[in-house]
Amino acid sequence: MSDVTSSGITVMPGRSAGIPPTSPRQGHSGRRQRRPRKPINTQFRTAVSPHQLNTARGRIVYWVVLVAVLVSFTAAFVFPFYWMLTGAMKSTEELNSIPPTFLPSHFSLDGYLQAWDLLDLGRLLGNTAVYAGGAWLLTLTFDVAAAYALSKLRPALGKVVLAMMLSTLMIPPMVIMLPAYLTVKDVPLLHWNLLNTPWAIWLPAVANGFNVFLLKRFFDSIPRELLEAAEIDGASSGRILWSVVIPISRPILGVISILTVVNVWRDFVWPLLVLPDSEKMSVSIGIASLSSQMPQNVLVASLVIASIPTIVVFFLFQRHIMAGLTAGSLKG
Predict the structure, then answer these.
(1) What does each C-alpha distance from 206 to 49, 127, 290 come to in angstroms?
(2) Alpha carbon separation from 82 to 64, 75, 104, 149, 307 (Å, rounded)
(3) Contact 330, 221 (CB under 8 A)
(4) Is the dihedral of CA 181, 183, 186, 187 positive or negative?
């Protein structure tokens, strides 16, 4: 039953007038009671939890495994180069001895000196540097421009052109070797013979759909607002490419540079076809053609000398690649 007070307010039994009813989550004092917190179940998705790493046994196992993995992978990559480097310092008899020796009995640089003189490595390296340098410059010029046009300028039939470029990656290189040779021997419409010229190396290196695809994917990550701000300031498309896009694209340009230079430097079959003149041979062809006439330690020394420029190129551009791992993507 409810009671009616003198002011006409109906009061339910067990409740006082003017006092709001308490909710089930409130106590008699009117304060809201908090539910007891559930214990947090921390789960670690790693092979070894941090709790195990904090123990003495866990730290020992961790460092042993880490050092073993690092030493194994480092040895797998460095040991072949070490074997070439020390093999050139050995005599031919010691190099062919069984079991092999890991250190030369007498350190000597005669193998390197003979390789430089007998193989005329100075001329071969100079020829290859011209081929690789020209291919690098033309690749950065034309492939960057093509990727920028496909990514930001959005020309008509741009997707069709990109699809046709990518379709060339599905064709084995040996299949297009003969058509490419006939094209270089007699350029359509112009009827130029590019054999024994650097253009026979440069033009196929530039026509690389994979490089265009990599550059386009990187340019797609550049926010459109950044380019529109440059357009408002009156910059043309060429000015935007040179002053805005290229400075922030150094990571991908470093990757393209390494791929282009290394591919031209190590290529063997294509220069063998288009550079029959012995005075214009690349270093790979020159070493292969004279390998049967050279002692084995001299041949190994020539391989070490020929591989040094590619290693130098990698160390020159790897700084830009490492720096761009976190700075390569932008947010608008």
Answers:
(1) 50, 18, 30
(2) 25, 9, 12, 45, 12
(3) yes
(4) negative
Residue 308 · residue 121 · CB < 8 Å = no
Taking a C-beta distance cutoff of 8 angstroms, is the pair 247, 203 a contact? no
Q: Are 56 and 204 within one domain?
A: no
Please check whether residue 28 lies inside any domain of the structure.
Answer: no
Model pLDDT, residue 35: 61
Q: Are residues 97 and 196 in the same domain?
A: no
- The residue ranges of the chain whose pLDDT is under 50 are 1-11, 14-17, 19, 23-24, 324-332
Q: What is the pTM for the complete model shown? A: 0.74
Q: Is residue 27 part of a domain?
A: no
**CA distance linking residue 115 with residue 291, whole number of Å:** 11
Max CA separation in the chain (angstroms): 125
In sequence order, what are the beta bridge partners of 11? Answer: 3
Final residue of a domain: which of 60, 85, 112? 112
Sign of the dihedral defined by the CA atoms of residues 139, 145, 149, 151, in that order: positive
The strand ranges marked E within the chain are: 3-4, 10-11
Q: Which of 112, 143, 163 is the last residue of a domain?
A: 112
Quick count: other Cβ atoms within 10 Å of Cβ 216?
Answer: 21
Q: Give residue 166's domain range.
A: 119-327
